[in-house]
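Aim 2, interim progress: modelling of the phosphoenolpyruvate-bound target.
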Amino acid sequence: MPSTRTPLIAGNWKMNTTLAEARILAYNVVHMVGVPKGVDVAVCPPFVSLPIVAEALRGSPVALGAQNLYPAESGAYTGEVAPNMLQGLCRYVIVGHSERRAYFAEADEFVNAKVRTALEYDLTPIMCVGETLQQREAGETEDILRTQTSGGLADVDDVSSVVIAYEPVWAIGTGVAATPDDAREGIAVIRNTIAEADGQEAADSVRILYGGSMNPENVASLLEQPGIDGGLIGGASLNGEQFVALVRAAEERERE
Ligand code: PEP
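Predicted structure of the complex, ligand included:
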């Protein structure tokens, strides 16, 4: 049975682009992407560029996402951004990215608080999970994916409102993407974990993206794998032509 999940191609600009660069990149994406057929598209610029990019995206089907949020409405959390500040501005928010886990010591419980907060404020969380190279070499990939998935989704009533990105840490920013088989297997572990906790129907409704050095050369082989519902893109999303090439590849897969 063909999947009813609409693929999502989401760009994570990370800590790149000045205001002026963000505006140009957003206008380029909007201009080149047009109206994607059967594919959702989003860009996640740095916080300070959200309003300027929102302006560039106005009237376009390209959605806006943030790269993080803090799970409280207000308070003494210097440097953080609250969900009510993003509500109405963004559709998506990335949580649990491996860079946040590694550099800011974000653990599953905190990621889970962010997932639940995002949902409360009508934001779709894109929750990232993935093993490090050391964990993969130690044969721990499945355990890590299961722990991060169930930890991040704890007490979430409607898992179908969450997007998950399987991002093997060793594939992020390295130019070495997971093989299509590894990506498919990792995603199958994540979907099985959800099925065990919430039932097969719920698991089948969750969009699970692949992320890690996805580019115009490898995108087709990754997206043709069953269960891969799009991509979370870092480096290639900073180049309008490359990013839009990934959207075109996702459209192509939908046509097949
Ligand atoms: C990411 O950081 O989410 C990512 C997938 O990066 P890259 O595409 O550069 O590997």
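The longest helix spans residues 180-198. The pocket of phosphoenolpyruvate is lined by residues 12, 167, 172-173, 211-214, 232-236 (CB under 6 Å).
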